[in-house]
Amino acid sequence: MQRGSVRQLSTADERRQTVLRTALSAFAARGYWGTTTTEVAKAAGISQAYVYRLFPSKEALFVAVVEHCFVQVRASLERGVAQAGGSDPEVVLSVMGDAYSRLISDNDLMLIQLHAQAAAVSEPAVREAVRQGYARLVEYVRGASGGTEEQVQEFFARGMLCHLIVSAGADAVDAPWTRTLAKGIRHH
Question: What is the C-alpha separation between 79 and 7, in angstroms, rounded?
Fold first, then answer.
């Protein structure tokens, strides 16, 4: 250390954010069951014990990552709404869909969503985080767009279909089934 310089230690909140970012990448790559807290700790440059001081369990860490992703999705939809050139539900839903398709071009975020849905089947805390995340998103989309139940449902169904197309690489296959699934679906 240089004379006169003061070493600044990271706050727990800064470390928590570092661990979240690191865990997001690790869980995206290997899923809930394939990722260890040891791997997350090593990638974050901290001890596994410190990970457990910030998050009491691997499940709590994964739930925090899932919640973080839902916050990112909401922020993306809000940016889309801010750019809408009108208040017609179809226009608002379209710009939100475009904003979301740009967001999931970040494969890590999309993969966390897919892994969270898979883990929700057998992990109650993950299931609750997914339920709560979608509950907040559906209410936001409904309120921000003014869309009907059917329009809001179609918005989410198209998002799920976009996940399938991107995750399966269906956009790289020229076949009748891929053309059927991808017709009218935007992704970046």
Answer: 38
Q: How far is CA 180 from CA 8, 151, 155, 162, 170, in A?
A: 56, 20, 18, 12, 11
For residue 114, what are its two tokens?
A: 């897919």
Tens of each residue's pLDDT in the chain, 188 residues: 455 555 555 687 888 999 999 999 999 999 999 999 999 999 999 999 999 999 999 999 999 999 999 999 999 999 999 998 889 999 999 999 999 988 888 789 999 999 999 999 999 999 999 999 999 999 999 999 999 999 999 999 999 998 888 888 888 999 999 999 988 886 65
Residue 62 corresponds to which tokens in the numbers above? Answer: 């994964």
Element housing 180 (H / E): helix 176-182
- Distance, CA of 172 to CA of 166 (rounded, Å): 9
- CA gap 183, 164 in Å, rounded: 13
For the stretch 62-65, contacts whose Cβ atoms lie closer than 8 Å and that sit 24 or more positions apart, written own/partner, are 62/23, 62/27, 62/32, 62/116, 62/119, 62/126, 63/125, 63/126, 63/129, 64/20, 64/23, 65/20, 65/23, 65/24, 65/27, 65/112
The two tokens of residue 169 are 């690489």
Q: Kindly report the pTM of this predicted structure.
A: 0.88
- Identity of residue 177: W
